[in-house]
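Troubleshooting log. The previous structure file for this entry was overwritten by mistake, so regenerating from the original sequence record. Sequence copied from the archived sheet and checked twice against the printout by T.R.
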Amino acid sequence: MIEPRPVIRLSDAVAGGLEKRILEGSLKPGDRLSSERDLALELGVSRPSLRAAIQILVSKGLLTTKHGGGTFVTDRLEAHFADPWQEMLSGHPTLHSDLLEFRQMLESQAAHLAADRATSADIERIDAAYAALDAAFDGDDMTTCIDTDVAFHQAIADAAHNVVLGHLTASLMRVIHGHVSRNLEHLRARPKRWEQLQAQHRAIWQAVRDHKPDAAVRAARGHIEFVRKSMVDNAQEEERRHSALRRLGDSVA
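Regenerated output below.
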């Protein structure tokens, strides 16, 4: 006897399609969905079916609705990973080296996969992210430098076409945002190192857009090793500065 196939409700199918967009990063945390009318037309469904689909994703914590303000993608897939680790980092500084080691593994694999899998649309997005990064690094706005740096690495991760890797990268960037900020400020004050950092980003960009996985891995690994060393140098310089100030205070006293 042939068992009947389960009936899939239209609202479940629509919810599944929207959920896939969130997973693959087409819809990112903070993004606002198109108006109910426009989205229903785009998906070819009725507005009641769309409303039911949205409620399914709201119940999962992937969407949130604001009265009179629209429907937005939440950061649930990233925040639940990032929040406890940010707190742990403040109490356990030794975790910093572990995070950098993990970042090196993650970003080198992302670069390898992106170089192998990136589509023309991915390359277009990576090109735009690199152009924004390059322009920011030639300017003086540190906030823009940080934001474009993070966006460039995320564009590489998204081009790997592995949704888990993409979301882990986004989560990791949330965890280490403060460290990225301090490290860039440290390097910005040292023109030669700043130029080295720019050259590393350029090498990653070129290897990925030229579809050279091995070169992409080497460039990504070299970049994170440079970041690790600069953070160590920064910490040592800070310790020397504090030590000199303490000696100065003792001599004055």
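The longest helix spans residues 213-252. Archived copy saved in two places this time.
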